[in-house]
Amino acid sequence: MAVGFGFSVNATDGRARSGVIATPRGEIRTPAFMPVGTAATVKAMLPDSVQATGADILLGNTYHLMLRPTAERIAALGGLHRFMNWDRPILTDSGGFQVMSLASLRKLTEEGVRFSSHIDGSKHLLTPERSMEIQRLLGSDIVMAFDECPALPATEEAVAKSMRLSMRWAQRSRDAFGERPGHALFGIMQGGVSPELRAESAAALTAIGFDGYALGGLAVGEGQDAMFGVLDYATDMLPADKPRYLMGVGKPDDIVGAVQRGVDMMDCVLPSRSGRTGQAWTPRGQINLRNARHRDDPRPLDEGCACPACTGYSRAYLHHVVKADEIIASMLLTWHNLHYYQVLMQGLRDAIAGARLDAFVAGFHAMRADGDIAPL
């Protein structure tokens, strides 16, 4: 492990585990959900509000920050933590996933990826070395190796070629990262839905040696059953004494299933994006506040929730501000969603520590099956 960075598993229940990732900027309780602060902000939230939901760590986006305002500018202004007023840990992705989505604007070679900015059309080259440099300038606590993430479905030949390129880039990322006390580097497993390719990728990453390991190339169109099918075997291919991070996941039932299969960390834009579109996540499932059924309802969104949206406002009010496109709608619903996700993570941690995960999961699914409370 990197100096000042550690991981301990304090309890297990089946394949699920709860523990702590220690960093110089604070502890991260696992299983952990990381809110996404794409452009140095979790949209519609103040940093103090994000922390109040229970988040221990945020995710920042290398691709977006390198383009605007640029990593060099952020470094000159004291680094990403000071820039966005967040003094707890930050994980930055490598930029590989965003570049994947620019298929029409990119050229992939062994060296890296040349692409045109979606903002102004300017030309850029992103390599493993440049990705490490950008993340160093940002000052992130957990750095992700540069990889290529192929969209699924894809042929096994294409997935294998991409995975082996990512493993060569992983070695270059490791070399370029060097020794940075207090900062950790995670490698990213690829291989699509092939057990053989996943095993090859895990062996390559383990031989290089990283402070943590991510499961990449999932939640990219393969569906939940296929994703769980991969997690059924792939998680155990990674070192048990290092954190395991499932990238880009997900919906609450995705998270619960991933934790059951040994995942320690997750991130997703879903709770904040949903909050900006009038969607709320609750123990009873997803609720659309645009629906007319809420317009005369004086009850809270979730009677058991302690967030500001639920303790201070009615469904009728939330329906009104959503329909009126008021900014407070995004603020309240994003806060609620992030709060719900963190309550879910605490519930999972407590259930694992108490060896009662099966009962917790059964209750989770039963309440969702019941659906939202009936309209008045």
- Judging by the overall fold, what is the CATH architecture of the largest domain? Alpha-Beta Barrel
Radius of gyration: 21 Å
Number of domains: 2
The CATH topology of the largest domain: TIM Barrel
In CATH, the homologous superfamily of the largest domain goes by the name Queuine tRNA-ribosyltransferase-like
Name the poorly predicted regions.
none
**Structural class by sheet pairing and helices:** alpha/beta
Strand order of the largest sheet: 4-5-6-10-11-12-13-14
Put the structure in a nutshell.
The protein has 15 helices and 16 strands. The chain is α/β, with parallel strands linked by helices and 376 residues long. It is globular.
